[in-house]
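Task card 7
Instruction: Convert sequence to structure tokens.
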Amino acid sequence: MEETSKEKDFIEDDNEPLPIKAPLKTLGHRTINKKFGWWAAVVLVENYAKKQICFYLWQKKDDDWKRKQKFGIHSREDWALISEYVDEYIDELP
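Output:
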């Protein structure tokens, strides 16, 4: 089966656990990019019985992953606005 361009954008997740600590519980994730000491992923997390989707960016320092950025999406309404605004500029990218 041939991969689509969308499937190629994500890399296979290895068995390395995500560097996310309690009280957050990881329910699922997809790695976007993991190279040159940087790891970017989309993660479905649960925190005190509330779910959210987060974009994480970690940097490897001294054999440990340290979080550099985190951006959370808390509702479908948030995502609707984000995706609408990104769509306005997406054709500007190569």
